[in-house]
Amino acid sequence: MALKNITGQVAEGSNFFGRTKELKRALELLDDGNSLILAAPRRVGKTSFARKIKDTVIEKGWNGFYIDLQKPTTEFDFMKQFLKEIKGENWFEKHVLGAVDEVTVKDVALKFNAQKQDFYRKIEEALPYDEDTLIIFDELTVFLDDVLRKKDDSQNEFKDVLHFLNWLRGLRIASGSKIRWIFCSSISIESFAHKHSLSKTINDITPFKIGELKDDEPLLLVKALADSKKMSFSDELIHYMLEKLNWNLPYFIQILFREIVNLLEDEQPLLPKTIDEAYQNLLAIDINFNTWTERLSYYDDEKRFARIILNKLSKSKKAVKKDNLFDLVYIELNDHEKADEIFLPLLKQLETDGYIVSDKDKYTFRSSLLKDYWYNNFGK
User: Fold this and answer.
1) Which long-range contacts (CB under 8 A, 24 or more apart) does 305-309 make?
2) What is the structure's pLDDT at 102?
3) Helix or strand holding residue 356 (H, E)
4) What percent of the chain has pLDDT over 70?
5) Which helix (H) or strand (E) holds 77?
6) Cα–Cα distance between 232 and 163 in angstroms, integer?
7) In the sheet where 362-365 sits, what is the strand order?
């Protein structure tokens, strides 16, 4: 079946491409009883990868569940979605809603805090501990951040998140359990935990890195896309295209390929200048990059310093020394101690989230495409 050039959506079935080595290693770790954090920036394909793993273990006879935590914004919403996924709609209605006096979901939600432990216990009792099972939580950090932001009492909001993460940890380390877990999010789970001093709640999970396509996979992906359009795309031109991108994520490859196709008329030959024009056209389409700017809102008070650093890097033709970037933060604050406190964690988060990359204490944008977009929109 021909590969479809579907961008911005989960790649499933025959549209999932490559990552053979990563899949093999991830499955080995799960077989050994490990739970995983998929450590990768946005647009790398974490969700597609996680769902591919789920499909694979289901074929082996496991139970497999996928829970998208972008949808729930409260603990009650989470429990409702989790139990419906694990046990089904009818079970939730009978065993959860039927266990309280109220008759509407709204009423149940109002009394949730008073009966929270009962709800948590119902989830614990519903889980298939004695069966090989994979449970995937996607966008965990987005959900936790929503819980924090929706509360009025800062102490209670932190206690809720701490309790939630400790509860999840208890499920993972339950003696004799055959349940494995995968956690992924477009915002770094590890950075979130470190920022809020919650790292101990996830220290039992194995980080699993997913990066750009490696070896011959980027070339083979372009070939497969070209074959699906019955295009002639030489290896030389593919390498030219990939060198422009510099960071060979499937998403970046696919959106550039889409723009190349848009430029070609019937039987028109593909030339380097066609790729150049498609690249420039791509930079003008904000929707391809909006998540990179929007996610900076999760940096809270450090957002403005992140923008200052990214603006500087977008203007520089060469990698910038760490000390020079520190000076930018210091100039804004005029407080050396405060700049020290902010700077290194901020650099680490920007690197973890895929904005920048370091080499010998010098930093530049991880993606040439993102750098050029940033310069055009914020750096000039």
Assistant:
1) 305/329, 305/332, 305/342, 305/343, 305/346, 306/346, 306/349, 306/350, 306/355, 307/378, 308/332, 309/346, 309/347, 309/350, 309/356, 309/363
2) 46
3) strand 356-359
4) 89
5) helix 75-87
6) 57
7) 320-321, 362-365, 356-359
Contact 346, 338 (CB under 8 A): no
The Cα 371–Cα 142 span in angstroms is 25
Task: Tell me which of 257-271, 327-341, 345-359 is least confident.
Answer: 257-271
Residue keyed to tokens 């490859």: 253
Q: How far apart are CA 172 and CA 89, in angstroms?
A: 25
Distance, in Å, from the CA atom of 242 to the CA atom of 221, rounded to the nearest integer, reads: 11
Sign of the CA dihedral 335, 311, 242, 209? positive
Q: Is 176 exposed, middle or buried (0-12, 13-18, 19+ CB in 10 A)?
A: exposed
Sheet strand arrangement including 36-39: 63-68, 133-138, 179-184, 36-39, 206-209
For residue range 38-55, what is the model confidence (pLDDT) as tens digits?
877 777 888 889 999 999
Which region, left, alpha or beta, applies to residue 301 given φ > 0 means left and ψ of -120 to 50 means alpha?
A: alpha
